[in-house]
Design brief:
- The strands form two sheets. A five-stranded mixed sheet has the order 2-4-5-7-6. A two-stranded antiparallel ribbon has the order 1-3.
- It has two domains: 52 residues; 131 residues, Heat Shock Protein 90, CATH 3.30.565.10.
- The chain is an alpha+beta fold.
- The protein is 49% helix and 22% strand.
Length: 210
């Protein structure tokens, strides 16, 4: 019992130490006019707070997208202007409940894999709407796309067999949706080679209680 309690206390201390260290690096960068490093530290602190500090596995779409923007800002330091990111969220979906940390792996797949073989500038768009009583969240890219066999594999229950993307992450998202909301909901892929890919989450419409 004492061991478990000590581990719980340690778990509270470690994130604070990490936040404080990053905050120190941030202000050191500010003092030395290294604004890019300061901005990256700010985004990383916000990202860690969202993923580590908040209790529970559920959040709202607006909070999930705000967390995603922190991730995008960090990736922009690495990839520069090779891609653009935008959102088009129906206001009715802002306070809809969803699982935490499910959009970032989908966008990460776009950044790392989708734009490898295209000449034009990449774009990633997050779109949300309510249709037939269900919440739809789409991550759209103009990348190289996938053939039918790959899409079929990703849309099967065991998406871990896919050769492209972080398929472990995709399988994790699909399983979390199934366990939280049941088999009527899930993550589905639509893609066309040379055109792009849509990853669509379909969830129940559940408004967050105040």
């Amino acid at each position: 019992m004492h061991g478990c309690f000590n581990r719980w206390l340690q778990a509270q201390i470690n994130p604070h130490f990490l936040y404080n260290t990053l905050d120190s690096i941030k202000w050191l960068a500010v003092l030395q006019n290294m604004n890019n490093i300061a901005d990256m530290c700010t985004s990383l602190i916000n990202l860690l707070k969202y993923n580590l500090a908040q209790p529970g596995s559920l959040t709202t779409l607006s909070d999930e997208v705000e967390n995603l923007k922190n991730y995008i800002r960090i990736q922009k330091f690495r990839y520069g202007d090779t891609f653009e990111f935008s959102t088009q969220l129906d206001p009715e979906t802002h306070d809809c409940e969803m699982l935490r940390f499910v959009l970032q792996p989908l966008v990460e797949n776009c950044i790392i894999h989708a734009f490898e073989d295209i000449e034009d500038k990449g774009f990633i768009k997050v779109l949300s709407f309510i249709e037939n009583g269900k919440l739809h969240i789409e991550v759209i890219d103009n990348g190289s796309g996938m053939d039918l066999a790959t899409v079929y594999t990703l849309n099967q229950n065991d998406s871990r067999k896919g050769k492209r993307f972080n398929t472990i992450g995709i399988h994790n998202i699909k399983e979390r949706i199934r366990l939280q909301y049941g088999n009527r909901y899930g993550l589905y892929y639509i893609s066309e080679p040379g055109v792009g890919t849509i990853a669509e989450m379909v969830l129940p419409v559940i408004k967050k209680e105040d």
